[in-house]
Specification:
By secondary structure, the protein is an all-beta fold. It has no helices and 14 strands. The protein has one domain: 5 Propeller (Tachylectin-2, Chain A), CATH 2.115.10.20. The protein is 0% helix and 56% strand. The protein has a four-stranded antiparallel beta sheet with strand order 4-5-6-7, with no helix packed on it. Strands 8-9-10-11 form a four-stranded antiparallel beta sheet, with no helix packed on it. A three-stranded antiparallel beta sheet has the order 1-2-3, with no helix packed on it. The radius of gyration is 16 Å and the shape is globular.
């Protein structure tokens, strides 16, 4: 049957946090699988998005700046620190296998914006920034009829509003 996975965290505030990977087959009972041990035993993460790729590799995009990778049974993980601090991480694997990620980043001006990036299992490379500012991010991502549809919220026009972008990712 289908299996669900989730990351839970322990710790709060400035205390080191621990990320714990769980699995479920019914959405009610969860089984602990692995602890995410980051390099230098640091764990500052607070959010993670998990995806299983077509080759069964599990990838985690983790706030603020990590990508984790594991093969079945997902008990051993390797982590790469990315150079962008990221809030509201999300990513999608397209039918051709490419990965695209989104999240809130900050530019040289330190202002927050919703970013779309090319992603691999070891990299996050911003491609462009959607119209956004202030409180923003948490994009949903769907591949539909050859376009990437992204919904996100932003307060760059005053009150927080929800936006929908249809993006053509062809070269």
């Amino acid at each position: 049957g289908d299996v669900g996975y989730a990351v839970s965290k322990l710790g709060e505030g400035s205390h080191p946090r621990r990320g714990l990977l769980y699995r479920t087959v019914d959405g009610l009972d969860w089984e602990w699988m692995a602890e995410f041990i980051l390099p230098n035993d640091t764990w500052t993460a607070s959010e993670a998005t998990l995806r299983i790729l077509s080759d069964d590799t599990m990838v985690a995009l983790i706030r603020p700046d990590w990508i984790g990778v594991s093969s079945p049974p997902y008990s051993g993980w390797s982590f790469t620190q990315i150079e962008y601090a990221l809030g509201g991480p999300n990513f999608i694997a397209l039918p051709d296998g490419t990965l695209w990620a989104s999240g809130r980043t900050r530019g040289d001006d330190a202002l927050p914006r919703t970013t779309l990036a090319r992603m691999s299992t070891t990299s996050f490379e911003p491609v462009f920034h959607l119209p956004s500012g202030g409180d923003n991010s948490y994009a949903g991502m769907v591949w539909h009829e050859g376009l990437l549809w992204m919904s996100y919220y932003s307060s760059h026009e005053g009150k927080s509003s929800i936006y929908l972008a249809k993006l053509d990712l062809s070269d």
